[in-house]
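Hello again,

I reread your note about wanting to compare the complex against the isolated chains. To keep things tidy I'm splitting this into two emails, and this first one only covers the full assembly. Below are the input lines as submitted, including protein chains and any nucleic acid or small-molecule components. They are followed by the predicted structure of everything together. The single-chain runs will come separately.
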Amino acid sequence: MTAYIIRRLLQMIPTLLGVVLLLFVLFNWVGGDPAYILAGKVFSEAQIANIRHQLGIDQPAYVQIGIFLKQIVTVDFGASWSTNEPVSEILKTRLGPSLTVMVPLLILGTLLAIALSLVVARYRRSLTDRMVMVACTAGMSISILVYIIVFQYVFAYRLGWFPIQGWSDSLWTNLTTFAALPILIGLCVGLAPDLRLFRSFMLDEVEQDYVRTARAKGLTEKRVLWVHVLRNASIPVVTYVMAALPGLLVGAFLIERFFSIPGIGREVLLAVERSDFPVIKAITVYVAIATMFANLAADLLYKAVDPRVEFK
Amino acid sequence: MAKKLHSFEAETVSERGGRGFWSLAWLRFRDDRVGVGSLAFVAVFFVIVFLSALGVVASHWNEEVGIHDAPPDLWGWLTPAAPPEAMGNAAQRAAQTMENTQHREALRPSTVIDPLAETLMQLQRERTDGALSESRVVDPLAETLRILGADGATPSAVKEKSAEKRTSLPLGGDRWGRDVLTKTIKGSQISIAVGLSAALLATLLGTLLGALAGYYGGRTDDVLNWAYSVFNAIPYLLLILAVAAVLQQRGVMTVILILGLTGWTGVFRLIRAEYIKHRGREYVQAAHAFGVPDRRILFYHILPNVSHVALVKVSLLAVGFIKAEVILSFLGFGVAVDEVSWGSMLNDAYQELILGRWWELAAAGGAMALFVTAFSLLTDAMRDALDPKIREAS
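Full-complex prediction:
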């Protein structure tokens, strides 16, 4: 077990180096010389040289990658190119609002999808099941943009049930007032794909021998599904949820943008619009690291809920 | 009678000769009513997209054919002689006359300060009296030019364009008076073409790399797997946005490249697994023993046996890429400003909705939902038909 974890952690190093290399190539070569972006429209050669020196891009590539690695370890990416706010400060202050929306969304969404998928599994292969699946496909085909635009227009602007946008300093006000409609939209958008996936998890279990045994014992269909099937189907569900965890950070960037929620996702969009490279680089690197750890945690949890799994 | 017997025989022979994999898949597909229905839907979309690409329809999507924010009037357009349209026209003209009069009133007090006001008023009067019956588009600069050229310079150099603007359009008009219907057709063409091209690019790349990694294994596999894990470590949309931030130019080709070059990982994983499976099969070993070159084994012997996996993946990817393109274009990182896609339409529609103009949102959102639903159902049916084992399991 310990050996496995250590090996996995060591395997992360080349991957992380790859991410660093990819970002370095993207932001230093593919996009042209960053000094020209910073210099603006009117510049002299001396200014360009000065900026290049300040950014360190007049040094050889390996030194620059070294600087980049040091920035990652010390969480010091300097200041944002557009607002001059320290990047570490941006990361710290934007994390809370993102989590305020995404954590309730993930919990409620998962519970709802589990419950509904068990109901659908009960009617498997009937007309109802097929209709629900076609409805899910149709629901997934509508752009998330349409959901957000219509919900914001109808529930916030027309009916006035929720504020159109905004954010406060108190967690409770945010949860009950400002995050309510974003969470509702997230639930509606996420339900169809989750339901489809969870239904297939449930159906994989329904055909198993232990289910037949449980039925033969004379258990009710309800108990068979909600206790026996659910317990076994929770293994892939847990893996799926763990894999979705890094998405908590940037997953709702469209929702954050429409509702002016000062989260990480909105920050990414702003940074892309303003060519604010340090912010994009920092967020991408840390989300990538979070993703790798979430994958490791998913595998460990997989072992915890299913002792049959052997680590290779 | 003899003929019937003959055809019966032919059927048995072909049955005995064994149907090919694709022929069997088609037979299974034909029995799937949802699949056939969605195929018909997708086919209709493709015909429209094809005609639009050839310039037969919707080539003038960027022209201002109606008044701004013209309301939708599908029923009136389906029944051409319907009176509401004529009434709409009359009402429009009356409104315009009023507007002109008001304009004239408003101009009067400014005489004191503006030496040109008198001339302007004169022109205004001529215009409203002379050409009241049709609404005209006048180049605002033309007025000034005419005034400047009034003392005999070159008045004939100024061209005046007059056009009858429609007061209603089948699916309404946008802020600039462009026809939402033609815009939707053109937008569908761009969005669908971008989604499919990017999916094709990603699948080609993923198949090539997956084939190399799966067949050769060893060092090649290690390097490609490393690239896979790097691309996979960054959440997909974040990666796309990072690339979009770096590439400064916008346009259809940029979007295809962004999506295609970042989206190959899923295909790579699948195809690699298939090639590992096929690598040890007898037919590959036999080909190897005969001295067939690797390149030929990879793409001539094995590829046809895994191509159904790639085909299903293309259409799954296309759905994802269409959605991604719509988001990119909505945010302004996608198609250029002089191009239209479902995403840029949704951006226009978002600003119009607040004024109660819902038709562009309905048209763009509806067209996308229809196509993507049909295409997803088609993909499901295709997967079931191509891989009967999956169908038995679920």
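For quick reference: The mean pLDDT of chain B is 76.

B.
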